[in-house]
Request: fold
Amino acid sequence: MLEIKSIDAYYGETKVLWNISLNVRQGELLAIIGPNGAGKTTIMCTIMGLLAPKRGTILFERKNQEARTLSGGESQMLAIARALMSKPKLLLLDEPSLGLAPNLVTSLFQTIKKLNKHGLTIIIVEQHVSQVLEAADRSYLLENGSIILEDTGSKMLSNPHVKKAYLGL
Reply:
């Protein structure tokens, strides 16, 4: 699935990777271990394209695909992945389920819940009202540019106005 052949990588004039070759097969979990400063993060940055190798090649099925050619769902997943790479303290998600297949929406919300349980603060704007309120600790209802209701996610789910206007119940 991914093959790295004889890459050398530098930070400025400092050579960090020397003739690195490795591969990973589809479905495999590959560990790269070593002490601090060994080059583990540099390998990852090179694989992700954040650092260009001075020599060698990286072979991967979608490496050259431009983000603008991704499907809507793939674009959403890429945007979330890119946001998480920066290890944010606060993650803002604007319609993250837009364009995703229903089974991926469920998976997305499971992932969002896990990220939150691990301490990531999240603000999410979402049209899948029932799923987002099930995940939310607190919620605000915004109508015509004004906040008209604030409550827990579970209480908002049982609010008669929310049930009628947003859940079709």
About this structure: The chain has six helices and seven strands. The longest helix spans residues 102-117.
